[in-house]
Amino acid sequence: MKIAVVKQKGGTGASALATTLAVELAKQGDSILVDLDPNQQTSVNHLKTRFNSDINPSMHNLHYKVINDGKKAVKASNDYEHVVFDGAATASLSTGIISQISDLVLIPTGFSKDDLDPNITLAYELMDAGVPSENIHIVFSNASGTYVEQREAFKYLEQTDVQFIKLVINNKPCYRQALNLGKVLTEVPFPGPKLKAKQLICALFLMKGLTYE
User: How would you classify residue 13: left for phi > 0, otherwise alpha for psi between -120 and 50, otherwise beta?
Assistant: First the structure.
C-alpha cells in the first residue's frame, strides 16, 4: 500500500493524517513515512517525539526519512511493504511524482471555500497528469466549523468530479494534545473522537483491500 498525502495549502491536518496512517500501516507490515517538506519536517518530528516517548516501543516496523525530491522519495520507498508520503505544504513537481505511483492520493481540506477551491484544483491537476480519479480523495482530517458548514462543503464537492470521504475528523483539543505527546489520531483517550479517527482509517484501508481492527 502506497499513500500520498498532498495539499495545496497548509493547516489542514495533513501531517497528522500521514503519521496516523504510517503508525496504523506499521501494524500490518514494514512501513515507512517519507516527509517531503525538509523545512518543516512536521510528520518526522512527530514520529521522533513518539519514539523518544517510548510509545509502542515494540513497533520496529515503522521507519521515517526526510527527502525533498519526489524521484528519490519513490526510490527510497521501494524496500518497504507500506509507504506514506507526506507532501510539502504546497504542490510541486514532487507532488505529481508521488501521486502517480500511489494507491491512494489523499488531499486534506477544511470546510471553507478558501480551503476547498485550491485543493479541488490540485485534484483536477493530478487527474490531468494521469493519476486515476478513483485513487484521489479529498478528506476532512482537521475540520473546524458547524454541521451546516460541513453539509455545505459536501454539497460543494458533489458539484465536482472529485471524490471525497464523508467522514470528518474535527479540530478538537484531544487530538492536539495526543499529537503533542507523540500519539496519533487513533490513540486519543476519548471514545467518540477515537472512533471517528478509526472509522476514517478503516474506510481508507478497505478501499484497497486492507483490513483494519
Answer: left
